[in-house]
Amino acid sequence: MSDHPSTLSPEESLYGICLLAAFADRSASEAERQELKQIGESILPPEMHPAALYQKVLLRKIDATSAAAGLDSQEWRQLAYEMAVCVCEADGQTCPEEKEFLRQLGKELKLDSARTETTLMEADALAAAPIAAIATEQLPVIAPPFPSGPAQAEVDSLVLRFSILNAALELLPETLSTMAIVPLQMKLVHSVGKLHGVDLDRRHIGEFIAAAGIGATSQIVEGFARKLLGGLAGGLGKKMLGKTAGSLGKTAVNQITSSAFSFGSTYAIGHLAQRYYGNGRSWAGLNPKQAAESLRNEAQNLHTLHLPQIREQAANLDLGKVMAMVRGQ
Q1: Does 223 have pLDDT greater than 60?
Q2: What is the distance between the alpha carbons of residues 165 and 311, in angstroms, rounded to a whole number?
Q3: What is residue 146's predicted lDDT score, i.e. its pLDDT?
Q4: What DSSP assignment string belongs to 241-298?
Q5: How far is Cα 174 from Cα 54, in angstroms, rounded to an integer?
Q6: Is 86 exposed, middle or buried (0-12, 13-18, 19+ CB in 10 A)?
Q7: For range 264-280, the mean pLDDT
Q8: Nearest residue to 161 (alpha-carbon basis) of 153, 151, 171
């Protein structure tokens, strides 16, 4: 990446737009900013200069105009907008500052205003979905019994079913399917809390997820960073992030990488919720961030084991079904 913003590659532009979206409401804490910086440095390849890109965004040397200039096709520009919407919506419906950022981004990307408005409305609907548990028949069916007591077995089954569902969402062609992952994780925490006699609201669930070190915004940005990495590993070209046939087309490497990441994050959140609420809403004797990392590692083999079921689940889903499920319809 040269010092001149107009020379950004499409990959750099996409990651830059993710960061711009994350900072659009100007409320990111220093801890969150450092987490976003570390995501780029630890995941993206050195040739993308993630640390330098982060600094340029933070110092406003890269803005929507210069980032949009690095995207030379309609497919790239539409993808960039959808990614920005997902990041802005990660912690709830967009605030006025985020809406203004997205409005300006849509103009810079030269996208049809009616289409961008529809995209934003769909994302708003997912972000505002009620957190009450979805009907269990809408979750994947898992046959193997768990070798534990009835209560623990119920939680284990619930966590695995949500993990499979969220892993399947990353195999769908629509970028906005990513938007459903955080609301479904919130529903999982709500369901685990109910099993322990606690009726949680959105604020408490958000605080729990943040305390576990799995922030909604950073989770979305990291997911997209891993997709970028998968695309680069597969020879990006016109194969990138969830589009098919004449569009951008997702590589097999990219699919499995993002699916495994969402499976692991959901698995970690569910089992941390079991430990936290089972311990009387206390982290006593537990380092939640270390525990989350250990659970994510544990989930790697489980994702491989359940990959055929994840693919089968994805084959029976589309964005319309996902939105209806998250809304409780």
Answers
A1: yes
A2: 10
A3: 52
A4: TT--SSS----HHHHHHHHHHHHHHHHHHHHHHHHHHHTTS--TT--HHHHHHHHHHH
A5: 27
A6: buried
A7: 92
A8: 153
Q: Specify burial of residue 125 (Cβ count, 10 A radius: 0-12, 13-18, 19+).
A: middle
Alpha-carbon gap, residue 120 to 230, rounded angstroms: 26
**DSSP code at position 13:** H
* Cα distance between residue 122 and residue 116, in whole Å: 10
Q: List the one residue out of 169, 220, 162, 214 whose CA is nearest residue 191.
A: 162
| Residue 328: exposure state from Cβ atoms within 10 A (0-12, 13-18, ≥19) | middle
| Closest-CA residue to 92 (of 16, 186, 191) | 186
Residue type, 278: G
Structure tokens at 96: 């006025």
pLDDT one-digit tens code per residue, 93-118: 788 999 999 999 999 999 999 999 99
Average pLDDT in the 53-57 region? 92
Instruction: Answer for the pair 184, 222: CB distance below 8 angstroms, yes or no.
Output: no
Burial code (b: 16+ CB inside 10 Å, e: under 16) for 91-121 equals: beebeeebbebbeebbebbebeeeebeebbe
pLDDT of the residue at 143: 59
Using CB atoms within 10 A of its CB, is residue 132 exposed (0-12), middle (13-18) or buried (19+)? exposed
Statement: residue 164 has pLDDT above 90:
yes
Q: Looking at this protein, which amino acid is placed at residue 255?
A: Q
DSSP count for the chain of H helices, then E strands: 15, 0
pLDDT of residue 236: 42
What average pLDDT does the segment 209-213 reach?
80
Mean pLDDT of the residues in the chain: 82
